[in-house]
């Protein structure tokens, strides 16, 4: 058995293939501690850049985003904070109003509103992250890259 096998598979001797809903990211092992393994397979996060962007969002929205990775992902996954962030950055920049309902459909709509509104700032489709990263609470790297590009434009 390979060194560190149990770290990724739990107590199982046999690998279990796990993927996201789009089939774009795969990992071996039990679903326990999946977030760690997914980031391990996809590459390390730039925590410094992540903290800078989270600080920028916090200052404009008065939301506490000084928590850890998973807590921030939980707070941002419905898109409401991100839409408020753009509205504070440039008033009336949202293409649609924020949907305040606590439902997956509303979260999807808010993230789409956020992404569509970013185009008004000059970002292209290639600059935007896939909405599933936030909806599935999978990754912040795409959001961080998108907001870093927005910061460069401003």
Report on the structure:
The protein has 154 residues and is mainly alpha-helical. It has 2 domains: 5-42, no CATH class; 47-153, Actin-binding Protein, T-fimbrin, domain 1, CATH 1.10.418. Helices cover 51% and strands 4% of the residues. The protein has 8 helices and 2 strands; from the N terminus they run αββααααααα. It has helices at 5-9, 34-42, 47-61, 69-76, 80-89, 104-118, 132-135, 141-153, and strands spanning 17-19, 26-28. A two-stranded antiparallel sheet has the order 1-2. β1 and β2 form a beta hairpin. α3 packs across α5 and α5 (80-89) runs parallel beside α6. It is globular and about 30 Å long.
Comma- or semicolon-separated keywords:
mainly alpha; two-stranded antiparallel ribbon; 8 helices; 2 domains; 154 residues; globular; Actin-binding Protein, T-fimbrin, domain 1
- If you average the pLDDT, what whole number results? 80
Q: Biggest sheet, open or closed, and with what strands and sense?
A: 2 strands, antiparallel
What name goes with the CATH superfamily of the largest domain?
Calponin-like domain
Shape: globular
Span between N and C termini?
A: 52 Å
Low-pLDDT runs of 5+ residues are: none
**Widest sheet: strand ordering:** 1-2
Task: Name the helicity range.
Answer: 40-55%
Q: What is the CATH first-level class name of the largest domain? A: Mainly Alpha
CATH structural fold name of the largest domain: Actin-binding Protein, T-fimbrin, domain 1
Q: What fraction of the residues are assigned to beta strands by DSSP? A: under 5%
N-to-C order of helices and strands: HEEHHHHHHH
Number of domains: 2
Q: How many β strands by DSSP?
A: 2
Q: What's the CATH architecture of the largest domain?
A: Orthogonal Bundle
Tally of individual helices = 8
Gyration radius (Cα, Å) is 17 Å
